[in-house]
Amino acid sequence: MIGLTGHDQAWRAWAEAAGSARMHHAWILAGIKGLGKGAFARAAAARLVAETGLPQPAWDAHPDIIVLDHLPANDSEEEKRAEGKPWQKKRNITIDQVRRMQARLITRPTLGARRVVIIDPTDDMEKGAVNALLKSLEEPPAGTFFLLVAHRLGRLLPTIRSRCRVLRFAPLDDDAIDAILRSEVPRADALTRAAAIAAAEGSPGAALSFVEQDLGVLHGIMQRLIDEGDEHLALRGALAEAIGARPDRERQQAVIDLARAVAAAELAHSSNERQQRVIAAHGELVRLGSQASTYNFDPALLVMEIGGLLASLAMPRETA
After folding, report:
1. Which of the chain's ends, N or C, has fewer CB atoms near its CB within 10 Å?
2. Counting Cβ atoms within 10 Å, is residue 84 exposed (0-12), middle (13-18) or buried (19+)?
3. Which of 271, 272, 281 has the alpha carbon at shortest distance from 226?
4. Is the peptide bond before 121 cis (omega within 30 degrees of 0)?
5. Cα dihedral value 200, 265, 121, 214, nearest 10
6. Neighbour tally for 294: CB within 10 Å
7. Pick from 40, 126, 140, 309: nearest CA to 301
8. CA quadruple 116, 120, 121, 122: dihedral, nearest 10
9. For the chain, where are the E strands, in sequence order?
């Protein structure tokens, strides 16, 4: 289970707190995206609401586990989800979701003495939703606990952070991610796994995304852009072909994340002068990544921008 793999220390800290008489009512599960914090939250919630001797349903059918995450973007996308098809999500967790959750908190837990609210991820809540949540954190109903998944802890309001205990999740090492890839996608060959691990920066979710998106070829082209430059745009043409003519938003995001990771890896063996260029290019890729969930990028322009940023780093590198 990705949510627990490599996070023994976090689980021990959680289990110790859950077994104490003064369990804190609100927790932030903090770490980079793709570590399995959401799965961890669901497993932790199932343990917290369990009553000795009383059969418990699975977390997704448990009346005392409330999950707030991204809903389908519209009725059409809701139908796709119901049919098991790929579907587009809303950009944010809304204030209406929080208010519906709060209406449920007026009643007592159904199967025991505890109820858990999971928000995944909290840093995608719209402003009104955050303000509404703050009221529940300030005066939590008896027996109610909050698990707030956060990919970017710094984006949460200080008033939210101050009312929560933070449980941090460290990036996984290469061996742990390789074990997950071997288990989840046994079809992936060693070269593909190696590229995914190198680009994932300790995130097994990102590594799985890279493998599922078949980004191994892209990784090679991006590295060539950095190593050789692209004076005649040939590599950018190859990059466009590998990405595809009409990549969906998820693939665009994966491509940007891969380019960002490839650029970041250059810092370790760059001169001081080149490091400034790497940092600048990395910053632009971070900007692109933050906009990918909001804007519909033109694929051709996106390829040109990514390829140009990576090619700008082409110059002799120093040994680390």
Report:
1. C
2. exposed
3. 281
4. yes
5. -40
6. 8
7. 309
8. -30
9. 26-30, 65-68, 115-119, 144-150, 165-168
| Cβ pair 70, 77 in contact under 8 A | no
Cross-strand pairs, 147: 27, 118
Give the orientation angle of helix 234-243 with respect to helix 216-228, to 10 degrees.
160
Burial label, 304 (beta-carbon count in 10 A; 0-12, 13-18, 19+): middle
Residue 255 contacts residue 218 (beta carbons within 8 Å): yes
pLDDT in tens, 195-223: 888 878 899 988 998 888 888 889 889 99
**Residue 198: its pLDDT value, please?**
80
Averages of pLDDT over each 10 residues, the chain, 320 residues? 76 89 93 93 94 89 96 92 88 95 94 95 95 94 96 93 95 92 91 84 88 86 94 94 87 88 84 88 90 78 94 67
The residue type of 208 is: L
Q: Give the helix ranges, DSSP H, for 8-126.
A: 8-18, 37-49, 75-82, 95-105
Work out the mean pLDDT of the chain and round it to a whole number.
Answer: 90
The amino acid that residue 143 corresponds to is G
The pLDDT assigned to 272 comes to: 80
109 with 115: CB under 8 angstroms? yes
Nearest to 28, CA basis, from 124, 164, 145: 164
Long-range contacts: 216-220, Cβ < 8 Å, 24+? Answer: 216/191, 216/192, 217/242, 218/242, 218/243, 218/255, 218/258, 219/195, 219/258, 219/262, 220/195
